[in-house]
Automatic annotation (TrEMBL):
<dbReference type="InterPro" id="IPR023940">
    <property type="entry name" value="DHDPR_bac"/>
</dbReference>
<keyword id="KW-0220">Diaminopimelate biosynthesis</keyword>
<dbReference type="GO" id="GO:0005829">
    <property type="term" value="C:cytosol"/>
</dbReference>
<dbReference type="GO" id="GO:0051287">
    <property type="term" value="F:NAD binding"/>
</dbReference>
<feature type="binding site">
    <location>
        <position position="34"/>
    </location>
    <ligand>
        <name>NAD(+)</name>
    </ligand>
</feature>
<protein>
    <recommendedName>
        <fullName>4-hydroxy-tetrahydrodipicolinate reductase</fullName>
        <ecNumber>1.17.1.8</ecNumber>
    </recommendedName>
</protein>
<keyword id="KW-0520">NAD</keyword>
<feature type="binding site">
    <location>
        <begin position="165"/>
        <end position="166"/>
    </location>
    <ligand>
        <name>(S)-2,3,4,5-tetrahydrodipicolinate</name>
    </ligand>
</feature>
<feature type="active site" description="Proton donor/acceptor">
    <location>
        <position position="155"/>
    </location>
</feature>
<feature type="binding site">
    <location>
        <begin position="122"/>
        <end position="125"/>
    </location>
    <ligand>
        <name>NAD(+)</name>
    </ligand>
</feature>
<dbReference type="Pfam" id="PF05173">
    <property type="entry name" value="DapB_C"/>
</dbReference>
<dbReference type="InterPro" id="IPR022663">
    <property type="entry name" value="DapB_C"/>
</dbReference>
<comment type="pathway">
    <text>Amino-acid biosynthesis; L-lysine biosynthesis via DAP pathway; (S)-tetrahydrodipicolinate from L-aspartate: step 4/4.</text>
</comment>
<feature type="domain" description="Dihydrodipicolinate reductase C-terminal">
    <location>
        <begin position="129"/>
        <end position="264"/>
    </location>
</feature>
<dbReference type="InterPro" id="IPR022664">
    <property type="entry name" value="DapB_N_CS"/>
</dbReference>
<dbReference type="GO" id="GO:0016726">
    <property type="term" value="F:oxidoreductase activity, acting on CH or CH2 groups, NAD or NADP as acceptor"/>
</dbReference>
<feature type="binding site">
    <location>
        <position position="156"/>
    </location>
    <ligand>
        <name>(S)-2,3,4,5-tetrahydrodipicolinate</name>
    </ligand>
</feature>
């Protein structure tokens, strides 16, 4: 069995990951940890996630548990994630990184650290969203420059980063489809007398409201008609299931950074 360490085990995602790891035939929920001072420390993580006693008591900090597992599943906060990656590199532990909000500098550092450990890093672990990433690129490439590309994302009011990592990836894929660099054409805020829209812009707008799990719409708007590609998450369980799938996949890989396209076999689409 592959022993799994869950970072942020008391979080919205951590709790569901614990459940999905418990249910995976090749995974064993071996250890869990939380942020220093978290009220969850010392509690049974299984109980938190599914009402199932499974005897995994939440510890404080990765260093306290890193020797108990083969792979770390991380849905925490971008600064914490980078600390864990540095430790994983020192201890040659695999990682599944679901945390978003990582900067370009973080991702560059992660690429260097991953010379010493294998990791899957993905802003969205859902199968359908990863198919949507591919559809966004292909749709943009087919329609070309005569269609304005805009993205709207909606999430719950507790989400700390914006735009969502998924929205940024959708925009990046669409930009690739039409041969643009997202860093040059992304417009994430519009306010005041903004003037006419530049045709090459890719707009990304954010909604934060109530308990919305995660919704993304990609607009390809032309004169007189448009295409909308839409994904709506019904629960966090499909993200957690994707993370468990990635954890079972990554432990046999060479060191380096992989995506969910690699895990799901979507790379050639
Ligand atoms: N890739 C995906 O499919 C996917 C899906 C959902 C959420 N996310 C991302 O996952 C992250 C977490 O989302 P969430 O809704 O679970 O948030 P959350 O705030 O509910 O959970 C985060 C947990 O991490 C803990 N944490 C923070 N710093 C820590 C540290 N240094 N050590 C240990 N634990 C620490 C917090 O105490 C909290 O319990 C966000 O970045 C979100 O965007 C990604
Ligand atoms: O709930 C969240 O936070 C989510 N974050 C990811 C993102 O930023 O894209 C994935 C969707 C849910």
């Amino acid at each position: 069995m592959i022993k799994v360490i869950i970072a942020g085990a008391a979080g919205r995602m951590g709790r569901r990951v614990a459940l999905m790891v418990n249910r995976h035939p090749r995974l064993e929920f071996a250890a869990a940890f939380e942020a220093p001072g978290s009220p969850a420390i010392g509690k049974d993580a299984g109980f938190l996630s599914a009402g199932e006693e499974n005897g995994v008591i939440i510890g404080e900090g990765l260093e306290s548990v890193i020797d108990q597992g083969d792979v770390i599943i991380d849905f925490t906060f971008h600064k914490a994630t980078m600390e864990f990656a540095r430790l994983a590199a020192q201890h040659n532990r695999a990682m599944v990184i679901g945390t978003t909000g990582l900067s370009a500098e973080d991702l560059a550092e992660l690429g260097g650290l991953a010379k010493n450990f294998p990791c899957v890093q993905a802003p969205n672990m859902s199968v359908c969203v990863n198919v949507l990433f591919k559809l966004a690129k292909k749709t943009a490439a087919i329609l070309g420059d005569d269609y304005d590309i805009e993205i709207i994302e909606a999430h719950h009011n507790k989400k700390k980063d914006a735009p969502s990592g998924t929205a940024l990836k959708l925009a990046e894929m669409a930009a690739e489809g039409v041969g643009r660099k997202l860093s040059e054409v992304a417009v994430c805020e519009r306010n005041g007398i903004i003037g006419e829209r530049r045709s090459e812009e890719i707009g990304i707008q954010t909604i934060r409201a109530a308990d919305i799990v995660g919704e993304h719409t990609v607009y390809f708007a032309g004169q007189g008609e448009r295409i909308e590609l839409v994904h709506r998450a019904h629960s966090r369980d499909h993200f957690a299931r994707g993370a468990a799938t990635a954890a079972a996949w990554i432990v046999d890989r060479e060191n380096g950074v992989y995506s969910m396209f690699d895990v799901l076999g979507l790379d050639d689409l």
